[in-house]
Design a protein that fits this description.
The chain crosses the membrane at residues 16-40, 52-72, 84-109, 115-135, 147-169, 175-196, 208-229, 244-260, 280-303, 315-334, 346-363, 375-397, 480-499. The chain has helices spanning 2-5, 13-35, 41-48, 52-55, 57-80, 82-102, 107-134, 141-149, 158-170, 175-195, 208-235, 241-264, 280-307, 313-320, 323-339, 345-363, 375-385, 388-397, 405-443, 447-454, 461-494, 508-516. The chain is an all-alpha fold. It folds into three domains: 1-199, MFS general substrate transporter like domains (Growth Hormone, Chain: A, Up-down Bundle), CATH 1.20.1250; 207-266; 273-520, MFS general substrate transporter like domains (Growth Hormone, Chain: A).
Amino acid sequence: MFKIAGYSRFLTPTQFVLFNFTLGIGHFLVLLNAGAYLPMLPYVTGSMDEGLPYVVWGQSDYFTALGCAFLIARPLMKRFGPKVTVIASFLLFSFASLGALFVVHNLILFTSFRVVQGFAAGLSVIPSFFLLLEYYKTEHQHIATSLWGLAVFIPFSIGPALGGWIAYVLGDWRFLFFASFLISLLIAGILWGLLADWEDVIDRFYPLFHQSLTFGLFFASVLMLQEFFDVGLLSDLSSRFRELWGMLCLTLIGFAWFQIRNARSKTPLISFALFSHRNFGAGTLLFCLSFMLLQGGIIQYIIRFQLVEGYTAWHVGLLFLPLFIFSKPFSLLTQNRIQNGWDPRIPASASLLAIALNFWWISSYLRPATWELLLLPQLFLGAAIGPFFSSMTTLALGHVPKNQQLNALDLLNGARNMGAGLAVTFSDIGWDRLQAHQWNLFTTPDPSNSLRFLSFSPIEPHRLHTELERVAGLLTFNDFFQLLAWGGALSSCLVWFLTPPRTHLPDPDLIILENLGEEP
């Protein structure tokens, strides 16, 4: 306890331990909700009596709202301080979780509460981290950074496992929202009780009102763009043109209005001047597209492993636990090597190539594959994604002036998570297109299909349809991951067109940026 007392600036040892534990659980909770919901999707589909293309809206919109929240979190923190912002975000998260719990049979309301939940989650991340740093003495802030970074791979590893356990073993996926309501409310209460006597340094004259209006336009436009693809998913963008054109027009009008307000503002929400710095534009684009490949692969793996191969949510969740074994150690090793002068293009390219090889490995199985055989690729995937985030963040921000790097990081994280929302929809559309292609190959009347048709009685059309759909899904599984593998290989080559940052000495601020670049 006496040693712990030397770390804290204000709190007693007991309060300081409780403070660290509470913020850690809060960080864990908001990241968990990004990954735990995925294996539940087939169960949510049954509870809502809606098709999967509708139910995934709750996941895609969650990521979109989470990404947008990164852009307004820092202005709110300037105006109200990190303490108030964090407590308010967890109260909002609690309210959204409770709301979602009561409207599980109404798709539109449920999706709306998932949007609020995602926004609150994104709003909590950056202020929580800076609140943690604020209560550590300066010489010990590296410990806070290390502790914070432990949770960043939860959406890819522990999240699916816990979500699968809740859905299959516990038997009610709604427990995730009930637990989120109680825990986030408890977190807000503990933080308020611990920090009630401490006041943040705030800027009472910060022009938040006009910036909030600008953000509202941007948020509405991004959500409308996401809804364009959500509705497009229902028909693979091949019909419902009146709805799609209407949404697209509203999206374009919203973005145009946002750009006018943003350009005229003395404190713009998005500083487009950042894109004039070398690597930032190209690095952000490559980072987002690569992350969309990774996210799309993980999403479809979790969903199709259940719907196509017939495994439970618990089994598919357990497959993702091995990712946690190597992901964080390789991430820390990469940060250390970059700090000591390594060209970040080396780990970035190696990581993307390893992800591509992993997807190719997954596509090579004769399906349906046994569960035990699929564990080894997951260990390899954990090692592959470990260096990805820190190296790509360093490449994108390496030439941005130090006084602009935090704003650039907010934009980078926001764009990446908005891309993750689109990845949910794009991967579903891609899967449907590939499955339709396989279905057409099966049902084309030619001699190679004759035996397949003759093996069924003319009075068993349903059984024939079910069998063809099952085999088409198994073939689509491998085709889908082969395409992702080619995309990953291409990305690993494109990394070398980026300019490496200037050689630098170890910089604590860069470590903070790399850790925040792994969110969420």
